[in-house]
Amino acid sequence: MGLYQKPKDLKHRLEFVTEIFPDLAPRLAQRAGSLSGGERQMVAMSRALMMGPHVLLLDEPSAGLSPVRQDEAFLRVKEINRAGVTTIMVEQNARRCLQICDRGYVLDQGRDAYTGTGRELLNDPKVIGLYLGTLGADEE
Predict the structure, then answer these.
(1) pLDDT tens digits, residue range 103-123?
(2) Is 84 helix (H, G, I), strand (E, B) or coil?
(3) How far apart are CA 131 and CA 67, in angstroms?
């Protein structure tokens, strides 16, 4: 469905998406509703990537996933970014998100409270104390 308006690009885009999400390749004929939560999250990202966007906005890509699937989702987001797609992510799992991001913005009551590289924010004592908990960057 993500490539309905550009059928000539189907093969190329499908190859791109199945390189990033290889677990989906053998399930292309399967209905999305019969997939696991993690697989459905992959389908959602894949559908958006089929049109070859320059920017991808992700809202809570790790929500409702098992810890293993969460790690996989973050790794796939990093791969998407490496492939040249600017990725903007809104995510509650701040620690894990900051581990993979180039730039982070920590919001407090809708306002930009802290800005920096992911590494800077992970190591900022104020960010650790207020948003990441006592473990902070030690969990890396």
Answers:
(1) 999 888 888 889 999 999 999
(2) coil
(3) 20
Q: Which amino acid is located at 58 in the chain?
A: L
Q: CB–CB of 97/134 below 8 Å?
A: no
Q: How far apart are the first and last CA of the chain?
A: 38
| Residues whose CB falls within 8 Å of the CB of residue 38, separated by 6 or more in sequence, listed in order | 65, 66, 69, 72, 73
Cα 6 to Cα 21: distance, rounded to the nearest angstrom = 21
pLDDT in tens, 57-105: 999 998 888 888 888 889 999 999 999 999 999 998 888 999 999 999 9
Every domain of the chain and the residues it spans = 103-134
**88 to 22, 61, 71: CA distances (angstroms):** 23, 11, 17
Q: CB of 75 within 8 A of CB of 107? A: no
Q: Which of 75, 4, 84 is nearest to 41 (CA)?
A: 75
Backbone angles phi, psi at 73, to 5 degrees: -60, -45
Angle between helices 67-82 and 10-20 (to 10 degrees): 130
